[in-house]
Specification:
alpha/beta, Nase_comp1_asu, Nase_Mo-Fe_asu, 23 helices, Rossmann fold, nucleotide-binding, oxidoreductase, binds FE-MO-S cluster, 6-stranded mixed sheet, 4-stranded parallel sheet, ATP-binding
Length: 544
């Protein structure tokens, strides 16, 4: 049975359909988070409401602040012991589910396979959990002697008032050779995991960055910010960087080590992959140490080549530029051959992408390379700048929820601040079209008339699929099976299902092949859910 596309829908009708079932107040709020790209109704580009609370009762795709801090930012670091202070479920469900891969390296240190938790019980909630936390830190130290121990607060910790920072300070002093610090990243602290990113970035910058003073003598030193090595993406990017002769001092934080964070101030350029989760660190590194930052994207072969060239142009050294061109020339033929092969089958197919804060944008590069069209996309927790570009940052309203997240004061370091380029050098680059601290966001890269939706929910996801019948839906595990039951394949762009890497050149090849198979398979459309085949089940109460 072939699927027929509903072509008669116009985006305004789709939006209306999505909102139709809501009570008026909910519909009014959601209407501001559903936008028709380049809407014709107004001259100015339309604004989207983002980073606001999910309406109670709605089944959101979002995660919590603890997940953003522990799971996303600190979780991928392999030689820091990450202790969850809270009930066991919080630690267990944030343990290895994100597929951030690690490779131990010559030191052999890798705590990724352990799940550390204080396993709070009722009595800890009543009498306080600080003593238990102290004991857990001591136990972890005695067993592993790690360079660092991080403590993550879950909801009950904030509710009962355990002071994780005081415990961390006390234990740091007691242990002497282990950096212990904590995060007030209770799950409820912000409207989504985005708040957790900010909290994590602030603490890492305060307690860790800059600690290793040992000078670095390598050439072309960069930091790679916002790359978390999901499915081995970071390994592929590191392979390419190494081949080009670029030194990656610190990745924040895929397969990273304590020492990488501690040495980040030695880099001469910060390259930001995931703008949402880490732009704070890029800004702080610039303010304190004088390291400029650029936006890069290693998702998509063309985007990878472009990002490498951007790094080359920054250093401006012919040796590096030539090497980068040689690497691109060597890697691209296989990519192009695979793209050409799959395109005969993928051209014109349609996709929808709803992922956290970056991937709903970045992955459109790969779909474009396959000739596929993105009908609708959005972030779970992106901010307006991730949609509309950084130019809107000064206009973003700071609400009570954002004010709840600590802003730290960063100043130029009296000894270590040294601008990597003179003002004249920066100006010359900018005059030639080079963009520092620049991100245009998702909207300009999407076609006119496509539908951009912030904080999509279960109901709207199913409705969208029903109305637009895409060939592929990209989201996460929570959405996977409900969408597939509608007959549409779902590719997980958080964990990559069991696949990856998808970054860089080899990753692009992997992605083309996998998506080709997914959109070419009719298996999901053959499936019938029991309720589609049989009349609705009825039942009666026993007393009737
Ligand atoms: Fe950045 Fe990420 Fe993402 Fe993100 Fe995430 Fe992730 Fe994501 Mo899942 S840091 S915003 S909080 S790119 S875990 S590796 S896939 S929602 S789009």
């Amino acid at each position: 049975m072939s699927k027929t596309k509903v072509v008669q829908w116009d985006p305004a009708d789709i939006k209306e359909e999505l909102l139709k079932k809501y009570p008026p107040k909910v519909a009014r709020k959601r209407a501001k988070q559903i936008m028709i790209n380049e809407a014709t109704e107004s001259e100015a580009p339309p604004e989207i409401v983002a980073n606001v609370r999910t309406i109670p009762g709605i089944i959101t795709m979002r995660g919590c602040t603890y997940a953003g801090c522990k799971g996303v930012i600190m979780g991928p670091t392999r030689d820091i012991v990450n202790i969850t202070h809270g009930p066991i479920g919080c630690g267990f469900y944030s343990w290895l589910t994100r597929r951030n891969q690690t490779s131990p390296g010559p030191d052999g240190e890798n705590y990724m396979t352990y799940c550390f938790s204080t396993d709070m019980q009722d009595q800890d909630i009543i009498f306080g959990g600080e003593k238990k936390l102290e004991a857990a830190i001591q136990e972890a130290y005695d067993l592993f002697h790690p360079k660092g121990i991080c403590i993550f607060s879950t909801c009950p910790v904030g509710l009962i008032g355990d002071d994780v920072h005081a415990v961390a300070k006390k234990m740091k002093a007691k242990l002497g050779d282990c950096n212990v610090f904590g995060f007030s990243c209770e799950g409820y602290k912000g409207v989504s995991q985005s708040a957790g990113h900010h909290i994590a970035n602030n603490q890492v910058f305060t307690h860790l960055v800059g600690e290793n003073k040992e000078p670095r003598t390598e050439e072309y030193k960069i930091n790679l910010l916002g790359e978390y090595n999901i499915g081995g993406d970071g390994f592929e990017i590191d392979r390419i960087l190494k081949k080009c002769g670029i030194t990656n001092i610190a990745t924040f934080s895929g397969n990273s080590t304590y020492d990488q964070f501690a040495s980040a101030q030695h880099a001469d350029l910060s390259c930001v992959m995931c703008h949402r989760s880490i732009n704070y660190v890029a800004d702080m590194l610039e303010t304190k140490y004088g390291i400029p930052w650029i936006k890069v994207n290693f998702i998509g072969a063309e985007a990878t080549a472009k990002s490498l060239r951007k790094i080359g142009e920054y250093f401006g050294d012919k040796k590096l530029i030539d090497k980068i061109e040689a690497v691109i020339a060597e890697e691209m033929p296989e990519v192009e051959a695979t793209a050409k092969d799959v395109r005969s089958r993928t051209e014109g197919k349609t996709a929808m992408l709803f992922v956290g804060g970056s991937r709903a944008h970045h992955y459109q590069e790969l779909f474009n390379e396959m000739g596929m069209k993105t009908l609708s996309a959005g972030y779970e927790f992106g901010h307006r700048d991730d949609y509309e570009g950084r130019r809107v940052i000064p206009d973003i309203k700071v609400d009570a929820d954002s004010r709840n997240i600590e802003e730290i004061e960063v100043e130029a370091d009296p000894e270590l601040y040294s601008p990597r380029k003179t003002e004249a050098e920066i100006k010359a680059l900018e005059d030639a079209g080079y963009e520092f601290k620049h991100y245009d966001g998702l909207n300009p890269d999407m076609d006119k008339g496509t539908i951009i939706i912030d904080d999509l929910n279960q109901y709207e996801a199913e409705k969208l699929v029903e109305l637009l019948k895409p060939d592929l839906f990209c989201a996460g595990i929570k959405e996977k099976f409900s969408i597939q039951k509608l007959g549409v394949p779902l590719k997980q762009l958080h964990s990559y299902d069991s696949g990856g890497p998808y970054a860089g050149f080899k990753g692009a090849i992997n992605f083309y092949k996998e998506i080709d198979r997914l959109v070419g398979s009719k298996v999901w459309s053959y499936m019938k859910a029991p309720w589609q085949e049989n009349p609705e089940l009825t039942a009666t109460f026993v007393w009737e």
